[in-house]
Structure prediction request, 65 residues.
Amino acid sequence: MATRLVQINMKAQDDSVLGRFWAEALGWGVDSEGPGVTNLEPVGFAYPDPVAVCIDIVARPEAKR
Prediction:
């Protein structure tokens, strides 16, 4: 069975700001499954459609080192 990338997980101090930036840059939709999590996917996307790799941005309050 082949492996295929379906999702990217990114950490950010402010998930909603970074999510809005990438959604606008890619022309994608923004959703959230709860506080501190922003989900990005192409408009009209239905999992597990292989046309895109979705992005989850998760809040992480600690600064990057």
Q: What stands out?
A: The beta strands are 7-12, 29-34, 37-41, 54-59.
